[in-house]
Automatic annotation (TrEMBL):
PANTHER family associated with the record: AGL049CP (PTHR28243), PYRIDOXAMINE 5'-PHOSPHATE OXIDASE ALR4036 FAMILY FMN-BINDING DOMAIN-CONTAINING PROTEIN (PTHR28243:SF1)
Pfam families: Pyridox_oxase_2
Signal sequence, renumbered to the chain: none
Segments forming domain Pyridoxamine 5'-phosphate oxidase Alr4036 family FMN-binding: 1-69
InterPro entries per UniProt: Pyridox_Oxase_Alr4036_FMN-bd (IPR024624), Split_barrel_FMN-bd (IPR012349)
Name of protein: Pyridoxamine 5'-phosphate oxidase-like FMN-binding protein
Amino acid sequence: MQLATVGDDGGARCRTLSLRERHGRALWFTTDQRSEKAMQLERQAGAEACWYDLTSRTQWRFRGRVHFLTPQQHPEDTLRLWRLIDREARARFCGPPPGSLWQPPKSDHYRYLPPTPEDHPAEDFSILVLTADQVDVLELAESPHRHWQYHGEGRGAPTRLVP
Ligand SMILES: Cc1cc2nc3c(=O)[nH]c(=O)nc-3n(C[C@H](O)[C@H](O)[C@H](O)COP(=O)(O)O)c2cc1C
């Protein structure tokens, strides 16, 4: 999915994240607390996630507030998702912060990845939770296209909009 936030200069920022789990209207992603997005979201918790499902030809947009689950406060959930990501992704948490200046490796063993314990999430590992208060669905499979907006818990009837 693409996750959009507002940068410190007020401009838009967007990047791809892998959706790991969905709990009702909450989308769960894994990320590094040292990343720019984590810092931006500490100041401004609003974000929007968007993706297009090619099979059903449907665009989904989730807009809402973000909070983080950390290993210290949520050991069970963070351990479950820590085990879900692959070894290389885990190893990145032992390296320099994402977005920092690239330093050429000192040894020839540049492909060597430090072992990361499976049973102990890295300190900076976290779960980014986006809880939607608005879900926007655009269906392209049928003609005319259909555009729906769900508010709040999403239990009420959606509003139909012009596509
Ligand atoms: C296919 C794909 C999947 C990605 N999945 C994640 C992810 O699950 N979590 C994450 O933090 N970054 C993921 N990234 C990297 C982010 O897009 C981004 O480069 C990184 O998180 C730093 O973003 P930031 O500087 O805006 O914080 C993924 C990138 C791609 C292309």
